[in-house]
């Protein structure tokens, strides 16, 4: 405590002393130097010889001891002016051969400054921190020890004090920022940055102040200035704290807002739980979420946990804890880790996950049985023809996971998902989207700032309904202090802990590496050593890892670099061979590396963290790394490693024109393709193409590459296939490839290219390849329509199909489409479409174009398809073609929608959109899917869902049929929202380069009529609908004509009763359940219809609408019944029929199949089957065998 008359010594500015506020005369410079030297010793005895050196240096007097004694005597009298001459000094004492000061802690301004700085480090509230630091900085009256700036004994202390003052100023600004003073602080911070432009903390504070002052652009400019300054002056990049703040500013992260509570992180309240492990501090919220997810899993609820954050934030440590907590609950765990080196391995991460459970042959056969059998190729490439795509593998892997849960809940833990190979990421996404009722917890760690090649898919995972995203924050100052104490010992100075926190920005990995370096140097965690933390620096990992490697010496650096080249999991003999050492010497070096915390002390070999491996790997020059990868590939090939392991290194090696390397890459590509990982195969083949020796034939590699690229990169596919086509000599090979190229161009090339190429290739074919010519003519015709090209570019006379070949069937489908567009000859269209589907032969050569077109034509003609879509789905799954599955889901969804099976339509169309994102391509499918989904939602009366779907679809006009149908759907949505003028404007803006007269495929008149009715322009609306009805009479499909007549009858009001009766009669002959309900509702609501006719109509409409989920129709029917004065009792549906999906599920269930067996048979998820059974049970639906052996639906009379 300060008291009147107490001695004060000031060193923070000119050296001075006072007592009771009165200044004291300290004598000349040398006498003052004696006092300062003693004060700086902080009570320790300073020997006479050291004092002599401090005061006189090399110019000491003949009797320095006597001179010092005189100085000390004078100082004693002046520092204690009231003391008697004979009184023993209490301030400067003699001990042995030296002197020491004995002063209270608050007697020296330096000591008071350090004490206030320490207290501020322990304070929690910004206001308290700011008050303490303001008092501390107020003690400064100028440069410290200014009289002795050139003296060797003073310069270290001057530097230390200046550093502490700089830290105090920065911490004061940080506290003031936390108090909301950003705008006022910007000018001062600009001055501080100019004073010390190498201090990154000042740049950080300036950028934060600018951002909080709503000057984001200026904040980003500050980052650029900092980066330029550091690069120009020091040749370094900004440290992690500055980089992290830049990331947050760019993302406008909410945590950058001015804190409203305590400065340290306050976690949300969580249920009481077991204490966290000692090294998991500040992770209570994350651990609570983990425990909740595991508890849900044990209860049968699936989850996805994504742990996101920058490198070193502790994601892997949390993953390790999840595995431990799962083991406590007796939950099985399968783990894998993504790797930069192995990103091209087809299903590499998936194989890491599942292969440990597939080692026993009997167990392997059990797990890969049934629907999971299509995943066998992932683990055992079977040779032969490559699959059409990865869907078979994805579907099989999903069922492998389901089969594994028969033993109990399962955790799939994947570290470093950002380095996961593309096939594995698609597999995880496929699984996550089908997790309902499957007790699996998928956990993945994702390093932010490391984009994946399929970043969109990775981002979508976080939006899944089952997803929980954890973003661990940096450690608080308290947590850092605790970890410092555990590593370096207690007590820990708050100033030292604060320095550690500031230097590492609370990043756990950086902190761990920093503490490892400080521990190795024997640094104590006290205030006097806080400057050592700053000296070590913020670029902790690379610099300290390499420093430890240099200190280890011997074989350790060589072995570390060899391991860095080979990557985690490298076997000891290969590491030894690459390091050119014996295996015992290599093992000893690995042991030393483990003790230095560079590699893990376990097998298989692994670095303690990817950043550590990266530091070792990047320490090698790029050219030397490439040469070492080349040597690693040779060593692995010699030891019998897999082609994919060899290829991983060849991808990083110099291009040599090496035939052996080319063949190894081609073999690796075939293996990846057989696994169902075409993207990996493409990577290998692209390098194989570059590696071809000079003069070697290129056609085979180009063809292999192009055909595989057609599954993942359509634009590149056509380029390489065209090169192969030009180089081929055999006419049949050229013709086969021409058909493949043209078909790929339909979906992957800009409009017009497929048409032009197909015409050119067809004209070049010899006469004996007539079936190929028919195939190319079919593609030319269909692509003209699909891409909405000017007919001048593609219209020409097309002959009738000739023969029974695939080309003839493709041409039949194309002609059926052409006839349907014209809308004049339904019988011919059906005949051509049926021939196209005859024998299901097109399935073998066409993934989902011509056989889909033929099925669409039959649907638009009301030609019953029977079980076509069930068979198409089975075939698509059997072939494993993702595009075929996508096509099936899209058009089966359309089929369900037309039949009024809205729930099934929603499911199929949503799956089609997911599969379209997985497939990529030019986006032909999404406009159709969005159009049909909007129609489903409108039929359900769910405007919010329809609007959300429309927003997801975007506002672009789209191309061809899909874009046009989407615009129609959007117009109907606008009409339903009451925005009639906007709907008409949208319809007027639809381009129509290709006329589509048939309303079944271009219902623009009825869409416009709905908007016109809303605007009161009924006469115009009637005229349009009458014209549409005339065209539909000519086409002759009852479902479409019936729907249009219903609208016409509503528009004509009193004069439309006949139209309504005809509508209801026509629709009763079709499977269009919702349209039939609308027609009956419209007819029953007419006041001129008597009750005895109207009530049954309205009752039937209400029941059917309720069964189909068409709630708007149901409520209109209910209101019409009430308006006739009938009681609510008759307004409740008493019966409903089963949908097609329900019927199949119930039939198989009644035959004794379990939920999983039914799901596998119908290509559904177990969750979907369970939901169907629960819904059927709730509605009283059962299936029993009739005397004829047919299933029939029973209704129990339950009401909704």
UniProtKB/TrEMBL annotation:
<feature type="DNA-binding region" description="OmpR/PhoB-type">
    <location>
        <begin position="1"/>
        <end position="103"/>
    </location>
</feature>
<dbReference type="InterPro" id="IPR051677">
    <property type="entry name" value="AfsR-DnrI-RedD_regulator"/>
</dbReference>
<feature type="domain" description="OmpR/PhoB-type">
    <location>
        <begin position="1"/>
        <end position="103"/>
    </location>
</feature>
<keyword id="KW-0238">DNA-binding</keyword>
<keyword id="KW-0804">Transcription</keyword>
<dbReference type="Pfam" id="PF03704">
    <property type="entry name" value="BTAD"/>
</dbReference>
<dbReference type="GO" id="GO:0006355">
    <property type="term" value="P:regulation of DNA-templated transcription"/>
</dbReference>
<keyword id="KW-0805">Transcription regulation</keyword>
<dbReference type="InterPro" id="IPR041664">
    <property type="entry name" value="AAA_16"/>
</dbReference>
<dbReference type="Pfam" id="PF00486">
    <property type="entry name" value="Trans_reg_C"/>
</dbReference>
<dbReference type="InterPro" id="IPR005158">
    <property type="entry name" value="BTAD"/>
</dbReference>
<dbReference type="GO" id="GO:0003677">
    <property type="term" value="F:DNA binding"/>
</dbReference>
<feature type="region of interest" description="Disordered">
    <location>
        <begin position="256"/>
        <end position="277"/>
    </location>
</feature>
<protein>
    <submittedName>
        <fullName>Transcriptional regulator</fullName>
    </submittedName>
</protein>
<dbReference type="InterPro" id="IPR011990">
    <property type="entry name" value="TPR-like_helical_dom_sf"/>
</dbReference>
<dbReference type="InterPro" id="IPR027417">
    <property type="entry name" value="P-loop_NTPase"/>
</dbReference>
<dbReference type="InterPro" id="IPR001867">
    <property type="entry name" value="OmpR/PhoB-type_DNA-bd"/>
</dbReference>
<dbReference type="Pfam" id="PF13191">
    <property type="entry name" value="AAA_16"/>
</dbReference>
<dbReference type="InterPro" id="IPR016032">
    <property type="entry name" value="Sig_transdc_resp-reg_C-effctor"/>
</dbReference>
<dbReference type="InterPro" id="IPR036388">
    <property type="entry name" value="WH-like_DNA-bd_sf"/>
</dbReference>
<dbReference type="GO" id="GO:0000160">
    <property type="term" value="P:phosphorelay signal transduction system"/>
</dbReference>
<comment type="similarity">
    <text>Belongs to the AfsR/DnrI/RedD regulatory family.</text>
</comment>
């Amino acid at each position: 405590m300060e008291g009147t008359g107490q001695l004060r010594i000031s060193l923070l500015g000119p050296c001075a002393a006072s007592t009771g506020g009165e200044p004291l005369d300290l004598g000349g410079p040398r006498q003052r130097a004696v006092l300062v030297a003693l004060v700086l010793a902080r009570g320790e005895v300073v020997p006479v010889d050291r004092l002599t050196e401090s005061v006189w240096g090399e110019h000491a007097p003949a009797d320095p001891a006597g001179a010092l004694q005189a100085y000390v005597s004078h100082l004693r009298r002046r520092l204690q002016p009231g003391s008697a001459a004979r009184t023993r000094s209490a301030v400067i004492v003699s001990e042995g051969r030296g002197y020491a000061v004995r002063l209270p802690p608050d007697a020296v301004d330096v000591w008071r400054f350090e004490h206030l700085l320490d207290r501020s480090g322990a304070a929690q509230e910004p206001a308290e921190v700011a008050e303490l630091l303001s008092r501390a900085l107020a003690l400064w009256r100028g440069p410290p020890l200014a009289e002795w700036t050139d003296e060797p004994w003073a310069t270290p202390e001057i530097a230390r004090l200046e550093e502490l003052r700089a830290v105090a100023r920065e911490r004061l600004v940080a506290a003031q920022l936390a108090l909301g003073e950003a705008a006022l602080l910007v000018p001062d911070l600009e001055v501080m940055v100019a004073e010390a432009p190498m201090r990154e903390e000042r740049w950080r504070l300036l950028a934060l102040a600018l951002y909080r002052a709503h000057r984001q652009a200026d904040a980003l400019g500050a980052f650029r200035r900092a980066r330029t300054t550091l690069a120009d002056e020091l040749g370094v990049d900004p440290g992690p704290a500055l980089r992290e703040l830049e990331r947050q500013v760019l993302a406008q992260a909410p945590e950058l807002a001015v804190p409203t509570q305590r400065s340290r992180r306050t976690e949300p309240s969580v249920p009481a739980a077991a204490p966290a492990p000692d090294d998991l501090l500040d992770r209570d919220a994350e651990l609570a979420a983990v425990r909740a997810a595991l508890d849900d899993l044990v209860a049968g609820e699936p989850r996805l946990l994504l742990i996101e954050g920058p490198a070193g934030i502790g994601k892997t440590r949390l993953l390790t804890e999840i595995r431990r907590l799962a083991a406590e609950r007796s939950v099985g765990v399968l783990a894998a880790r993504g790797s930069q080196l192995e990103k091209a391995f087809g299903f590499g991460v998936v194989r890491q996950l599942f292969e440990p459970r597939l080692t026993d042959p009997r167990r392997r056969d059990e797990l890969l049985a049934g629907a999971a059998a299509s995943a066998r190729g992932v683990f055992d490439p079977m040779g032969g023809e490559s699959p059409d795509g990865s869907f078979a593998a994805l579907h099989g892997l999903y069922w492998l996971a389901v089969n594994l849960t028969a033993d109990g809940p399962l955790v799939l833990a994947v570290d470093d998902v950002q380095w996961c190979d593309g096939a594995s990421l698609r597999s995880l996404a496929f699984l996550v989207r089908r997790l309902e009722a499957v007790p699996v917890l998928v956990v993945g760690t994702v390093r932010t700032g490391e984009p994946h090649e399929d970043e969109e898919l990775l981002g979508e995972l976080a939006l899944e309904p089952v997803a929980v995203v954890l973003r661990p924050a940096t450690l608080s100052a308290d947590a850092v202090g605790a970890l410092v104490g555990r590593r370096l010992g207690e007590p820990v100075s708050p100033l030292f802990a604060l320095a550690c926190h500031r230097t590492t920005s609370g990043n756990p990995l950086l902190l761990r590496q920093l503490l490892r370096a400080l521990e190795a140097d024997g640094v104590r965690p006290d205030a006097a050593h806080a400057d050592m933390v700053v000296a070590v620096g913020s670029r902790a990992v690379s610099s300290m890892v390499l420093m430890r490697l240099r200190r280890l010496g011997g074989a350790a650096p060589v072995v570390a670099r060899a391991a860095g080249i080979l990557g985690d999991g490298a076997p000891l003999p290969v590491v030894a061979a690459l390091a050119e050492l014996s295996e015992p010497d290599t093992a000893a070096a690995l042991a030393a590396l483990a003790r230095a915390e560079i590699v893990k002390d376990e097998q298989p070999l692994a670095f303690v963290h990817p950043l550590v491996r990266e530091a070792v790997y990047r320490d090698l020059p790029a050219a030397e790394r490439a040469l070492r990868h080349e040597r690693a590939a040779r060593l692995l090939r010699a030891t019998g490693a897999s082609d994919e392991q060899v290829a991983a290194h060849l991808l990083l090696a110099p291009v040599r024109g090496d035939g052996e390397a080319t063949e190894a890459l081609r073999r690796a590509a075939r293996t990846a393709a057989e696994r169902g990982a075409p993207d990996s195969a493409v990577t290998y083949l692209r390098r194989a193409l570059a590696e071809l020796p000079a003069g070697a034939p290129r056609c085979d590699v180009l063809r292999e590459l192009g055909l595989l690229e057609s599954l993942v990169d359509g634009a590149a596919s056509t380029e390489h296939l065209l090169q192969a086509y030009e180089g081929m000599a055999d006419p049949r090979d050229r013709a086969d490839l021409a058909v493949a190229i043209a078909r790929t161009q339909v979906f992957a090339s800009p409009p017009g290219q497929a048409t032009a190429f197909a015409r050119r290739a067809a004209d070049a074919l010899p006469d004996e390849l007539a079936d190929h010519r028919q195939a190319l003519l079919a593609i030319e015709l269909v692509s003209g329509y699909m891409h909405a090209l000017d007919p001048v570019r593609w219209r020409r006379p097309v002959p009738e199909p000739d023969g029974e070949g695939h080309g003839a069937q493709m041409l039949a489908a194309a002609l059926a489409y052409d006839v349907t567009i014209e809308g004049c000859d339904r019988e011919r269209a059906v005949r051509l479409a049926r021939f196209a589907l005859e024998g299901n032969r097109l399935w073998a050569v066409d993934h989902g174009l011509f056989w889909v077109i033929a099925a669409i034509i039959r649907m638009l003609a009301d030609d019953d398809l029977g079980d076509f879509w069930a068979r198409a789905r089975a075939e698509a799954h059997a072939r494993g073609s993702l595009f075929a599955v996508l096509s099936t889901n899209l058009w089966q969804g359309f089929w369900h929608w037309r039949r009024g099976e809205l729930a099934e339509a929603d499911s199929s169309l949503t799956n089609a959109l997911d599969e379209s994102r997985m497939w990529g391509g030019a986006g032909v499918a999404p406009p159709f899917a969005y159009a049909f989904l909007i129609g489903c939602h409108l039929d359900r009366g769910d405007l919010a869902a329809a609007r959300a779907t429309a927003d997801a679809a975007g506002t672009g006009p789209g191309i061809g049929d899909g874009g046009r149908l989407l615009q129609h759907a959007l117009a109907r949505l606008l009409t339903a929202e009451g925005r009639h003028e906007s709907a008409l404007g949208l319809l007027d803006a639809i381009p129509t380069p290709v006329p589509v007269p048939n309303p079944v495929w271009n219902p623009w008149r009825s869409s416009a009529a709905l908007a016109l009715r809303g605007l009161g322009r009924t006469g115009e609306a009637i005229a349009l609908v009458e014209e549409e009805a005339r065209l539909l009479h000519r086409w002759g499909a009852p479902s479409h004509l019936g729907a249009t007549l219903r609208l016409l009858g509503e528009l004509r009001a009193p004069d439309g009763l006949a139209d309504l009766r005809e509508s209801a009669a026509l629709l009763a002959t079709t499977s269009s359940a919702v349209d039939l309900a609308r027609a009956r509702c419209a007819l029953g609501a007419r006041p001129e219809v008597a009750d005895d006719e109207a009530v049954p109509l309205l009752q039937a409409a209400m029941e059917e609408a309720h069964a189909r989920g068409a709630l708007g129709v149901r409520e209109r029917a209910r209101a019409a019944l009430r308006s006739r004065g009938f009681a609510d009792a008759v307004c409740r549906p008493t019966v409903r029929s089963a949908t097609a999906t329900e019927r199949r599920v119930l039939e198989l269930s009644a035959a004794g199949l379990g939920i999983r067996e039914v799901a596998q048979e119908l290509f559904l998820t177990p969750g979907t089957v369970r939901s169907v059974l629960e819904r059927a049970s709730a509605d009283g639906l059962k299936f029993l065998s009739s005397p004829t052996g047919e299933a029939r639906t029973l209704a129990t009379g339950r009401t909704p």
